Amino acid sequence: MPESSIFFENSGISDKNRLYYSYRYHTTYFETGKGRESSFFMYGAILGDIAGSRFEFSKPDGFDHKKVELFANSCFYTDDTVMTIATKYAIKKGIPYAKAYSLFGRKYPKVGYGTMFKKWLDSSSQKGYNSYGNGSAMRVSFIGRHFKTLEEVEKEAGKSASCTHNHPEGIKGAVAAAGCTFLAANGYSKKEIRHYATQTFGYKLSKPLFLRRPFSKFDISCQGSLPLALVCFLESNSWESCIRNVFSIKCDTDTIGCIAGGIAEAFYGGTGFDEDALLRRYLIKPNDYGHLDTFLYDWAKMPD
């Protein structure tokens, strides 16, 4: 074991399923435990984005996060869904992440990209623009499910981030989101996932949601988004309750829903909803020529 790695003997991790941590870019060794059954590798992230889309900037009077309908006619997919599927496309096609993000970004130009990403799409060089925005973390759920070791997951998540969000915090956010998704899918407990996020990345997760709500604000940084997404997951008891936790606090609801939803789906083994029906409802839309565009749906459904 490398000298930089630390095994937390009191973390509750069994001898059979050993997890080693590194304080500096980050995990170096992992043995997979038993995986959780899952409906699919990205549904939780995509549906978290869609559910959160209508509450990103405002919520109606009398809003009750415990009772509001999750999937309404006013919901829609955003850049989070498009880039999540683009990540899968890059991996399955064996092409650079930058090429896939550029292809999808130009194919679906009006889904809510940030200003810096729009400039990146229009640039001929398409070099990373030193961003630490949460766009690097919202698109990595497939990475956390596709690769077989935590070391591979972290390496690929870092690569996926660095082509755009090459600020250290942007890379860290992507690696953390993918790593937590991987652990959630491979039988690890919430205690172990929390330990990984706090000890490896330094995220502070001790403050519960009810203490965060009075001081919450719209924050699109990885530094602000990852801890919140993780707490929404950690305080949940199902995928749905995780998304309702996201609704309960002022935040970038579609992106927090995408990140937290991906981890929760991996942990709980599904969303509890008719996922195919929802994907058909929201992803299949008429294109500019009046024909139904099934491209996003087809790639979301494509088996790993």
**What is the number of helices?**
14
Largest sheet: 2 strands, antiparallel
CATH superfamily: ADP-ribosylation/Crystallin J1
Number of domains: 1
> If you average the pLDDT, what whole number results?
88
Can you write the helix and strand succession as a string? EEHHHHHHHHHHHHHEEH
* Bulk shape: globular
CATH architectural type: Orthogonal Bundle
- Report low-confidence residues grouped into runs of 5 or more: 1-34
The SS-based structural class is mainly alpha
Strand order of the largest sheet: 1-2
What is the CATH topology?
Answer: ADP-ribosylglycohydrolase fold
What Rg is obtained from the alpha carbons, in whole angstroms? 18 Å
User: Approximately how much helix is present in the residues?
Assistant: 40-55%
Query: How many β-strand stretches?
Result: 4
Report how far the terminal alpha carbons are from each other: 31 Å
Q: Which CATH top level class fits?
A: Mainly Alpha
Approximately what portion of the residues adopt beta-strand conformation?
under 5%
How would you summarize what this structure contains?
This protein has about 300 residues and is an all-alpha fold. The protein has helices at about 45-50, 80-95, 95-105, 115-120, 140-145, 150-160, 170-185, 190-200, 210, 220-235, 240-245, 255-270, 275-285, 295-300, and strands at about 5, 20, 285, 290-295.
